[in-house]
Amino acid sequence: MLAKSTTPNPSTVLGRQLGDELRRLREAAGLTTNQAAEALDCTKGKISRIENGRVAVRLPDLTAMLQAYEVADPELRERLGALARNANRRRSQGWWNQYGSVLADTYRDYIALETMAGEIRTFQAQLVPGLLQTPEYVRAVTVASRQWQTVDEIEKFVQVRLARQERLTGDSPLHLWAVLSEAVLLQQVGGPQVMQAQLEHLLAASEQHNVTIQVLPFSHGAHASMFGPYVVLGFSEEAALDVVLADNPTGSIWLEREAEVARYQDLFDAARTSALSPMESRAVIRRRAKEHRA
Could you tell me which residue ranges the HTH cro/C1-type domain spans (predicted)? Predict the structure, then answer.
């Protein structure tokens, strides 16, 4: 669903940091967004998108904003200019951009955020999280989606999914906490052999110090997260707010407002509390893997 979403691009961490600083400078200058828009001869919406980190800030626009906000400190102006250049470079130079022919903007921006996140918490109702999928599982999901038509497109998407998984290894690995509905273990994606290998891969991944996997069994009945999967991305940078990617019947949506993010944080806390412990979850995954082997 990610690769075909048409919802607005999310903020990057650097873009949001720059936007936050520009918002504070505007407010310190006593200007409303309407007044700032008039000073820059642009729309109020453009000011809002810049401050929310949703669009790149061109250096001429940054210079005009700093002038309108009467920012004279040369060190501050230089630091904000460097932040803008770095944010724009991160948007355009990520490894994922070479796969632009098979990735929609929303998915590319998700990967950009993922590369900067320190922690990901996710609930999945039907599929294994992308960061934990085997190549065969990825391929089966990609073919079934019917969103990519040629063998070349399918293989490129598989390459992207596998490249993303490098975030789970290295010197500063991403911390992943996944709560999976029991349905994830039962869905015959790719057939019994593919599922057996996938579940064994989950078992191996669950032994990593930075990966926590819990299973929410059918026997626990109705729960608040059952209406759709979501991902909560957390960042280690000071003042960097969490963001949420949630799926609904019409596509994927980004949520960044504090109250909305807090709602999903509460949903995840409830899901992990209701789920089996990591040790109990491994036992269930192991049992399901044996069933696929039979």
Answer: 21-76
Is 156's pLDDT higher than 80? yes
Closest CA relative to residue 223, chosen from 282, 182, 283, 167: 182
Rounded to the nearest integer, the mean pLDDT of the chain is 85
Which pair of structure tokens corresponds to residue 19? 């936007």
Report pTM. Answer: 0.74
Residue 11, classed as helix, strand or coil, is coil
How many H-runs (helices) and E-runs (strands) does the chain carry?
Answer: 12, 6
Q: How many angstroms separate the CA atoms of 138 and 157, rounded?
A: 8
What DSSP designation does 101 have?
T
Residues 6+ apart with CB under 8 A from 242: 232, 233, 234, 235, 261, 265
SS3 229: coil
